[in-house]
Every structure is written in structure tokens, then in C-alpha cells.
Amino acid sequence: MARCSHVDAADLRPPAATQAVYREDCTQCFDSIDDPSGLNVCLHCFNGGCTGDRNHALLHNTRTGHPLALNIRRTRKKVQRDEPPPKLTKLAIAAETEEDRYDTTMRVVCYACRDEDVDKSSGRLPTVIDGVMKALTFSKREEVKAWEQEIVPCEHTLCLSQETPEKIEGLNQCSMCDLKENLWLCLVCGHVGCGRSQFGGIGGNSHALAHSNATSHGVVVKLGSITPEGNADIYCYTCNEERTDPELAAHLAHWGINIAEREKTEKSLMELQIEQNLRWEFSMTSDDGKELQPVFGPGFTGLKNLGNSCYLSSIVQCLFSLPEFQTRYHRPDEVPPETRSPAEDLETQLRKLADGLLSGRYSKPDSDVISVPDSTEVPHQKGLAPSMFKHLVGRDHPEFSTMRQQDAFEFLLHLFKLISLSRHPDRSLNPVNNFRFCLEQRLQCLSCGKVRYKVDEQDNISVQVPARPIADSGTGSGESGTSYESVTLKECLDIFTAEEVVEMRCPGCNSQDGFRKRSLFRTLPQQFVINARRFHLINWVPTKLNVPIEVSDEPLDLTAYLSEGPRPDEELLPEEETPVVTFTPNPAVLEQLLSMGFPQVRCEKALQATGNNDAEAAMNWLFAHMDDPDIDQPIAPSSAQSGTSQQDPEKIAQLGEMGIDAARAAKALAATGGDVNRALDWVFSHPDDPGDDAADSDTAQGEAQEPPGTASTPARYQLQSIVCHKGSSVHAGHYVAFIRKKHPTTGEPSWFLFNDEKVVKMDNVDEMKQHAYVYFFTRV
């Protein structure tokens, strides 16, 4: 057999430390190395492609021309039950490795030579294959990176100023109570106080926090967490975040503590949080104690928990149960979008997720689970690992890029924004459009009676849940303490739309008496998202109040909350003149640019165009606009209606792909310093603004866009799904989704629990509806 000529190619080299290696699952579907035909990893760019019916590996070869791929196939080892266990010689727990659980086979494929088994020892293949197999997989690499960036120093730990050392009487008891665990040492003055009681059920009276509030000393260390290697829990009350202290040994020595002699005696905050999150388990049994049976089929696929990722899973399950997301992203008969990096393309990853959840291909019992003989219990499914999707939507975000538990509702809003910013073949195909509506704010002067209307475009509402404690119900707060009277969702909506008095100066009569303010709906959406705000700050910690909300199974009628708009007998307030805005460059960044030799006028223009806070972005803008005819013309003072024509055409085009005309896009960019994300928010919050009034703007002279939503009546909404949170803190606990769907076998509408990879039918969800955090309603 002739030797493959491609094994000596110049671009054939091992993956660099910063390169992602996709050797777990396909970048365009959830087929993986555990499938019978295995996964082909491109040896040129390390993309992972499936080799089954869809054959995304061949598609990758066709689009890139990369000839060589490493086929990796993994099979579960059979467990021998007839052999006695090995004799224990020491007290130790050996971690089970991948080699202990699986057999892995490899072969090299060359698409150009049509060779299915290239000699792995030829050419550059040995070093490249070795590099691929030793490199961290994509998901593990991103997980490590997320944990590494999790805890960092802050200015208060880096610039810690310690008082004159005094002898500390005792390190084994709180100086303000009798607690002898969960003790925190103030690194500023040496005070020893107990911590909060929220973490993992550990006792605490927050005396360390009380000391910080009284003295403004921010940095503390948990005494029981200190190790001889220099690790410890450091908390900064000023930042209200866990931090690191690069000079911990010296700072402890200042108070007579030799770090080399310390021994870790208590769990760290991260260990407590992970342990607590693992404990949260929504009941998987029926009222009579029987285990709820798993459900399988299209639309009943679970998602594996990647470590505090249940907030993502619950929101994704709710969204992909809706026809808008199913129609938009589940396209099994279409070829995947052409992109250089499928794992970095949002459209590709949303289609991959839709296929995984809706096709039913992966919704089957976990074959790796060993059932008890004669047992009728069906094992749950393995669940899909949405690693690429989680990395992509969380990338560069200060919260969602971490491994911490996050707020599910905030994630929903973040995902909506990313989807709206992404490319859509037609604006009508953006699934977020069906969530949008117009909220009208009416202001009426208490003195002259004149009114003003403002309409904002939104895709959700957050309603405050009134908390009325039941007398003698307890002394605590949050989930385990005080009980609260139940409220109805209608009461929450009544509060949301109720009149209130606000302090404002009237531009019509100059009165300072204030305004009567009320919000109603100008239009309502097809899909209505309501967030129930139960979290309140208790001792500066976001704590959930367990207030039940009664939600009927009958459709919710929102007709009464629709506005009729301005009345004929009302006198409108005059519009306030738009103030002239003079651009003021950031002095520190301007000085950086001037030191590079750029003229001041050009530096100021670059800062105005790039957000006024990033020297590198401004410098790149300067290089790209050196030949502009007006580059040396001074910046003229502008109003919100002017200066729009100077905006970056690429940003205008990006907003145009979302259906926003050039005039409105330019005005939005001008009003937000050229920031595309903020410009998108500006457009949504100014739906009636036509944009640039310039006479030569063809788009501005066109027809105004129709406002989102509809004002038709009756406006009746059926509860479609809910996201529930178990736990007292937004940074801990567990999220699950309950979704109303047709049963895969009977076809009857039923409620189903999506608890990470577990999917089961629920007979009674009334209690869960009372304690939901996010409600998804569908117009009927």
C-alpha cells in the first residue's frame, strides 16, 4: 500500500496550549466518541466531526480541504461481577480514570487518499496524535479556565494596610459569641468573628460582618481553611466577593500566625457551595412514594449538569418547548451553516442544541447504568452536555463565563440579547420577536393635569411579590424561616400596573408637586415571560422569601391591563428641548493616544467612535480611518438628533441584519457611544423614534415599523412552563423546569419535570407553580 503523502504536510503539528481540541462530541451535533463509528478529529484544526449518517466530519473536509483526521472510538468496559474485590492494603480512595472505565481505539483517516487506516507511525502523525490525546478536551479546558478566573485578588487585598500588631487572645472562639467554628480573622486589626450562617448549614451569627460594618475593615480570612501550602478562604466585605491574597503568609505572620503550622480543619466556601448544590433534589417520587418513571422521546431529552449549569438547562428546556424556537432552529433537513469554526458560531450551536433536544436521537436510557436484577426500574438518560453552547453564550461575560450558580432569569435576558444580535435570514425569523411588546408609561402632572406618554419595547416583565408574614410562624427568614401569606398572580400584576406618585418638575407649569405615574400595556406578546421577584437583601445578602403565588390552571386574562392610549380630552405636555451634547474625551485614555504621536483631534474622534474608554480600540479605529476626508475636522457639539451619519457602517449593517433600518441604527449608535449592544437596547426602548431626520435618508422616509405584539382582545394566556429555584440564595441552590407537553405515548397534555438529565411525568404541579421564579405564558 502506498504511503499517504499528507502525513508530512507542513500544517500538521500538535495542538498549541491555547488551541481547543474537540475530541468528545461533534461540533455540529451531539454524536460522540461513544457512537459505534466514533468521532473524527481533524488533525489540522482539531474540529470534531461525527462519522455516522450525518457525517459532519466529511462535511468539514469538503469545506476546508483538510485531508487527515483521527478517528476515536470509545467503548465501556464490561464489569466482571464474579471476581472477589482486591484486598485493601491502605485506607485510600482511588479516583476512577477514563482508562479504568473505557477502551479506546484510534485510526487515522485520509479523505484525499481515501485511506481508512493510515499508518499512525508515519510522518508527523505520532507527535500530532500524542498531542491530541494528551491535550485537555474543549469542555475540560473551558471548565479549568472558568475555575481559574473564578477567584482573583482585589484592590483591598493587594493594598491591605494592617494596624500595629497586638497579641491575639484566642483564635478558637468568636470574640462576640460562643461559636468555635466558621471563624474569620480580620487581616486589618486581628479581630476574630463568626461568619454568616447561610453556607451549607454551618452556624454563624455574622459577627465578622458586623465588625466590618462598624470599622470598614473589609478583608477577612477563614481560620479553619488555612493550609500550609498557602491556600485559604479570603473574603472582602467591601467587594462582597470571595478573593485571593497573594501575600497571605506575610499578612498572617503580622498577627503571629505561622502558615506552615496551620492545618485545614473546615470545608472551604467553594466546597460547601458544591456540597449544598448537590443536596438540592426536587422530589423524584410520587405522592404514594413510588419512583417517578423516566420519559423518553423527541422533546424529552435531558441536559447534563456541567457544574452549577442548571440555570442554563432550565431556561433552554422552556425555550425549546415553544414553536418559535423549534421552527427557527430545528432544521434536520438543512445543511449546517457554513462557518470556519462551528463551535464558535451561535447559529450552529443553537441548531445543535435544537437537534439534540427535539430529534429524540439521544433520549434513551443510559446503557452504562447497571440495573438491579429483576428490577422494573428504568434508568434515566445520560443527558447531553451543552459545553460548547455554555462557553459560547457565556464568553467574556463576567458572570456566565464562570462555574458559579447564576440567576436563571438574568441568563434568559442575556440569551435573548445574543439571539437578537445574531444573524437571521429574515427579521421575522428572530424567535425573540414573539416575546416583545410595548409597555406604556403615563405621567400626569398633579398641578396642571397635563399628561405625557412614553412607550418602551420589552420582552419580559418583573413583578414584585408582596411579602406578608404570618404571625408566630417563626423567627428566621428565607426558605427555612418565616411563613408568608399566599398571593395571586393577578395581585402582583395589579401592583405592577398601579398608580404611584413620583417627584418631578413639570415642564408645562414648572410645578414641583410631582406626577401621577402608571404603566399599562400598549400591546401584548405571543409568548409572555413574567419574573416573580422574591429575592430581598437581608444583611446585604440576596435571600429568597418563600411567598406562595397562586396561579390558576384556567387561562389568565390580561385584557384589563391594556391601555387605550391618549384620550381626546387630554392636553399633552410640550416636548422638552434636546440638550446640546459636547463630547468630553476620557483624559487618561486621551493621554495614552497622544503619547503615541496621534493628533488630538483624531484621538478625540476615535474615542467618541469607540466608547471613550479603550485605548486599543481607539487606536485600531484610527488606523482604519486615516484616509477619512474629515478626519482632522474638530468635533462639533451635537444633540441626540445629530451626529448620526458618522457612525461605523459595519455596526449599522450589523443592526440592519436584525431588521433595524439605517436611520434608527445610526441614531441609536450615536446615543450610546457606538456600542452595538447598548444601541440595540436603545432601539427597543424607543420604538416610536423614526431615527435620523435627514432629508437624504431614504429609509427614514419609509413607513414606520409596526410595534411588536398586538392590542387585540380578549388577551388570554395559558401557563406553558415554569422555572423553579430550590434554595435561599441566588448563588446556591438548584433550578428545574416544569413544562406542559403532550405525552409521547398517549398524546394527552401533561406536566413534565426537567431536572438536568432526568425527565419524568408529574401528576401534580400546583405546589411548584406557587413557588416558580419564571413563568412562561402562551397566548390562546
Report how far the terminal alpha carbons are from each other.
67 Å
- Biggest sheet record: 8 strands, mixed
Average predicted confidence as pLDDT: 83
Q: Could you state the CATH homologous superfamily of the domain at 155-277?
A: Zinc/RING finger domain, C3HC4 (zinc finger)
The number of distinct helices, counting runs of at least 4 residues, comes to 21
Number of strands: 26
Stretches where pLDDT falls below 50 for ≥5 residues?
Answer: 81-95, 474-480, 640-645, 693-704
Structural class: alpha+beta
Strand content: 15-25%
| Rg calc | 30 Å
What percent of the residues sit in helical stretches (DSSP H or I)?
A: 10-25%
From the spread of the alpha carbons, the general shape counts as: globular
| CATH-derived architecture of the domain at 155-277 | 2-Layer Sandwich
- Name of the CATH first level of the domain at 155-277: Alpha Beta
Looking at how many chains there are and whether they match, the oligomeric state comes to: single chain
CATH topology of the domain at 155-277: Herpes Virus-1
